[in-house]
């Protein structure tokens, strides 16, 4: 068996063993005596226990690596076999690559390291750059085993993609059976059916990001409808949350179409993302609009407009339901106001003017909500004149819920740093219907469903 200081092929001197992934598989750090550079040597034993598919994958890895040229993929250097005398009675195959000094993301996780959102975004972008290169080759090259242990954070602080032992050098073709490879928790379902596609690598990247953010392997997280449930384990911006959710969709057609699209979306945040709470709204039972409601909605595939009428008398009545203490205050305050209105007409006029303005705003404000695939805007109006605008972006919507004040209800949009009140003085049925309609439009818009 091999040991440190052994020299293979009269050129490569073994230094230390880096890993033993399975019986008959070894990885060594070695010195290339011709160049005095460090290299990585992967060894495969041609033993009776070895499955034929293992040799096929090993040879395919060597062939594919020899054809690749990317600064973040270890460079192919050599491929050779060793006879029984050298390999302890068993023939061995050897693949030599550049050595990448650094640490795997799996090792960081095992040390208890939790990566920040900024670090995870940077990792995702770097891996996507590599995937763009691989997937846009002719034919496309699929890695098929992206996971934390196969991503190396180099000493130069760049991410490197290693271990192409599961690589597939052609796109999946109907009716063709491929060797089933991948790691549970990171590989999507179609890959275990032998039908990997470029979107399969994107899924594995998404699952890897979940592990980096949550500190828990995807296979250990709960699942619902074959989707990884992780939103409650992480604290990240809505656009990244939605990006990962889309990347890890069970259905291939719901994921990003390409690594290039995934990278562009991650950079710009233009995903049309929404939170898991909104995305989970059932499209089954629909709550009907109350027949006497003055709420009005206009919708299309690209825009949703909601018109919330002023609260009017319903809001006025609620404001003045102030209880016994409020009546006592009014009992003492109003006589003084009336007195000063007579003695000092100017002060009384100012008071009643201010009161009229306040009541006008509280009871007479109409709200118009305009929402497109990226952002939303609330316009507050009195007598058709806009006096206030509030804006937000869809990626940061955490939830849409009802708020009750006495007998009236309002719909609230919540983001990480603020709350948007949609105004009005709605009945419970109206508010329930309105929240449902907004959620449903956002869900369909984000999922690309017909509206």
TrEMBL record:
One of the record's GO molecular function terms: ATP binding
SMART domains registered for this protein in UniProt: S_TKc (SM00220)
Keywords recorded for this protein, A-Z: ATP-binding, Kinase, Membrane, Nucleotide-binding, Serine/threonine-protein kinase, Transferase, Transmembrane, Transmembrane helix
UniProt-listed CDD domains: STKc_PknB_like
Stored PROSITE patterns: PROTEIN_KINASE_DOM, PROTEIN_KINASE_ST
Pfam families reported for this sequence: Pkinase (PF00069)
TM helices/strands, residue ranges: 322-344, 350-371
Protein kinase domain ranges (all copies): 12-288
Keyword Membrane: yes
InterPro entries found in the cross-reference section: Kinase-like_dom_sf (IPR011009), Prot_kinase_dom (IPR000719), Ser/Thr_kinase_AS (IPR008271)
PANTHER family: SERINE/THREONINE PROTEIN KINASE, SERINE_THREONINE-PROTEIN KINASE-LIKE PROTEIN E
Identification of the protein by name: Serine/threonine protein kinase
Species, as recorded: Hydrococcus rivularis NIES-593
């Amino acid at each position: 068996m091999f040991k440190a200081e052994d020299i293979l092929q009269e050129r490569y001197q073994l230094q230390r063993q880096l890993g033993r992934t399975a019986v008959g598989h070894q990885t060594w750090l070695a010195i290339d005596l011709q160049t005095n550079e460090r290299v990585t040597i992967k060894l495969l034993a041609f033993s009776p226990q070895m499955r034929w598919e293992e040799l096929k994958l090993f040879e395919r890895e060597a062939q594919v690596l020899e054809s690749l040229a990317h600064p973040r993929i270890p460079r192919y250097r050599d491929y050779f076999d060793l006879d029984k005398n050298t390999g302890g009675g068993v023939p061995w195959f050897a693949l030599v690559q550049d050595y990448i000094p650094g640490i795997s993301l799996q090792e960081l996780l095992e040390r208890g390291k939790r990566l920040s959102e900024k670090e995870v975004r940077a990792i995702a972008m770097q891996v996507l750059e590599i995937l763009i290169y691989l997937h846009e080759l002719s034919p496309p090259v699929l890695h098929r085993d992206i996971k934390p242990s196969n991503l190396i954070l180099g000493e130069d602080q760049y991410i490197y993609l290693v271990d192409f032992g599961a690589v597939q050098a052609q796109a999946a073709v109907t009716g063709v059976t491929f060797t089933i490879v991948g790691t549970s928790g990171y590989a999507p379902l179609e890959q275990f059916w032998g039908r990997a596609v470029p979107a399969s690598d994107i899924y594995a990247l998404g699952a890897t990001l979940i592990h980096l953010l949550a500190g828990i392997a995807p296979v250990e997280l709960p699942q619902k409808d074959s989707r990884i449930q992780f939103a409650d384990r992480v604290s990240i911006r809505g656009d990244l949350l939605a990006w990962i959710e889309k990347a890890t969709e069970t259905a291939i057609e719901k994921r990003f179409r390409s690594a290039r699209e995934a990278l562009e979306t991650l950079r710009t945040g233009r995903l049309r993302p929404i939170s898991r709470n909104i995305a989970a709204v059932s499209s089954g039972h629909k709550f009907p609009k109350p027949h006497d409601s003055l709420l009005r909605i206009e919708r299309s595939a690209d825009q949703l407009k909601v018109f919330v009428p002023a609260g009017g008398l319903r809001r006025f009545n609620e404001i003045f339901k102030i209880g016994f203490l409020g009546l006592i205050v009014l009992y003492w305050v109003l006589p003084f106001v009336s007195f000063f209105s007579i003695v000092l007409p100017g002060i009384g006029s100012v008071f009643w003017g201010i009161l009229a303005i306040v009541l006008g705003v509280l009871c007479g404000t109409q709200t118009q909500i305009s929402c497109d695939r990226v952002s939303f805007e609330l316009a507050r109006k009195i007598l058709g004149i806009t006096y206030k605008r509030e804006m937000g972006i869809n990626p940061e919507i955490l939830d849409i819920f009802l708020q009750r004040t006495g007998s009236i209800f309002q719909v609230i949009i919540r983001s990480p740093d603020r709350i948007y009140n949609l105004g009005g003085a709605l009945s419970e049925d109206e508010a329930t219907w309105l929240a449902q309609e907004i959620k449903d439009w956002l869900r369909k818009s984000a999922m690309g469903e017909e509206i």
